[in-house]
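debug: dumping io for the single-chain case to check the tokenizer round-trip. Nothing else runs in this session.
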Amino acid sequence: KNDDMVDMFQRLAKTGGASKPDGERNKGLNARIEEYSRDSDHENRTTLRLSGQNWRLEFFRITKAKVKEPVETVVFRDGIQKILMPGADSFPTGIIDTADTSRIPQVMSVRPLFMMFRPIASKTIVPSNYQMISNREVVNKVSCVAIKGREDGTNLSTIYLAPERDYAIIRWTVTAGQKVITKMDIDHEKHTEHGWLPSQWTVVSMHGSGKLAQSISSSLVECQIASVAEASDLELEFPTKTLVNDYTKKSKEGDPAPFIAREGGKRREITREERDAGYDRWVATESGKAKSQTDWSFLLLTVLPIIAITIAGLAVLASKLKRGKA
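debug: decoded output
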């Protein structure tokens, strides 16, 4: 019914515990998620800090030796996205780019939290894309209403919501043609103050051929809902010697502006003339100087031996010519 749709989206629009007042949408959220993938030999940990329409995601890998290794940090603030990849086997790299708010919530390990706390603001759900197809569905023994729409203009998305749980999302599926390519099932626990919160979820993704692409199980192991997140939680300062590509400062050709991060937020810009010099030279020199300095090690190891061999060869040739004349 139309009234059901209006009621449902009004609740979703209020976010953060669907039946809470409008101010709840600005509440901060700190969450820690454990994730296990069937096709991986390690477990993952994800932390999410959420404040207003800004957020910070940190991804970690737990090795067989139970060592927690940082994999990636993503910060979205005021329309700018920053990404840091530590580079365990090489040097750290980073990206700065403008970002649509719908991009980050696609990460499956945190999508249920965005669906719960920022479904419309983060564009994980766009009401105008959906229509109700059933108000009598049962999913995982929970009575649901179902809405269907096309989020990306091609694949069909179906969302099952439980009215008795403040329209919490119980299942989300994506269909390509007649095949379900993604299915997410979400379980909830009732919080005394904030209502129904996601507690654990599973995501199964399929290839177009019907073969399993990925199966992930996640659980919310810690969740704190505060009035405001600390400003420092939503900052990302690149460590020194990080190679960063800044896509907010593209050239006329569309290339990003690369730089090496230095202490105090300073940048060692990499000019076009020195872009083939390499990371070690960029780190060791000032902007624009990587190409102008002589690489003595290159001369000693490569150029000078060639010159020596050439001189020796000419000497031999001259000796032979002299003997021939004699």
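debug: round-trip ok. The chain has four helices and 16 strands.
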